[in-house]
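ingest -> fold -> write
write: protein_1
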Amino acid sequence: MESYRAENRDRWARTAAGWGARAEKLRRWTMPVSAWMVEAIEPQPGHDVLELAAGPGDTGFLAAELIAPGGTLTCSDFVPEMLTVAQRRAQALGIANVRFRQIDAESIDQPAASLDGVLCRWGYMVMADSQAALRETRRVLRTGGRVALAAWTAADENRWAAEPIRELLRRGLMEEPDPSGPGQFAWAAGGAVADQLEAAGFVDPRVEAVAFALRYASAREWWESQRDLSLRFAEATARLDEGTIAAVQAALAETAEPWTQPDGTLAVPARTWVAVASV
């Protein structure tokens, strides 16, 4: 797992710039997910809330508005490059009741029973030891405190992420990932999210599904977005010649036909589990 942790840190550090460049679009696309999570923890003025694996920070920033006055959001990530992205966005949005900390969710540097809520959007399932992270989350929550999370459903329900990888795999241009390890779809199976929460000691888990769409100007932008957000995809495609890239892009454009809108833009379906549980 140590090698995976090192690779994970490198992956997110090297894609932070891409996440920053696309942060505003990501915020709009994923607003139904963030809004569900924030509402689920029932933030109140004076509450202290932690966001783990915050990336650009948008989910936590929604909560920050609701816990003022008197409340503080701790926006955290385990790579400083992502925290820099979040800091810039907070400044642009004028959010003042937020502090930024580099935190590894598997070992949270925070006193026990010191927080009212924890948010983690699409983070736990890619961590080396998700159970350790959930147990740490439970430790830092006060009695009655809540955790809200998101974890992707199956790859076939998230073809915006799956199809570019599948096209490379079909052509032998990328190695198959380990299906048994951490990953984007590691918690996709029905019941997996609730099982993980209960195993960590949380009670009354409530799990729902949220559907939304990722919108691209064209199939080319879909390609470019995956390149910016996924280091694995970027590294695999960086080795390709122009002819192969053109062929893969053409295949993706054909795949995208069912999602093509009258104006030529794409609305690619996405689906995620969202969950809340209490201490």
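write: protein_2
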Amino acid sequence: MGTALQQQLSTPTLRLYRSADVIGAELGGALKNVIAIGCGAVMGAGLGTSARAALMTRGFAEMQQVAVTMGAQPDTLMGLSGFGDLVLTCTSDQSRNYRYGAALGAGAPFDRDITVEGAATAQAIAHLADTHALDIPVCRAVADLVAGRIDVQAAMARLMGRPLKEE
């Protein structure tokens, strides 16, 4: 059935992919919003595109860690519902989560009527990390930022002050 729908709905300008990994697709779609808030905050604070790229990269590693812990297939996040969605959401002014982060980073107001699903997701992921003993400093920094416990400078200081390690 998935193959038939894929063939019927695909067009010359829309290419659809199937996945049996529902957990991976759902987590990719949710977690990228958390990272997008962080990337928006980096840009809103004027930290630049290199800082955004670093945050996206480390955030993607955290997305993979969470997804695998929750039973997702690692390859799913390498596709469109993970990495592809992450790149778009972390770099587009059309992304509500990115715009919200940019407002946080700039210290500017944001319309409360606009849905920012990554804010609640950040809190849920921080709680999940506690339950599963996951080391996800980017997601935790975003959770603290949206909760008003820290500002962008404190978040960056926390992330940059972590012990150095090999990758």
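write: annotation protein_2
The chain has a mean pLDDT of 96.
The domain at 20-160 is CATH 1.10.1040.10 (N-(1-d-carboxylethyl)-l-norvaline Dehydrogenase; domain 2).
pipeline exit 0
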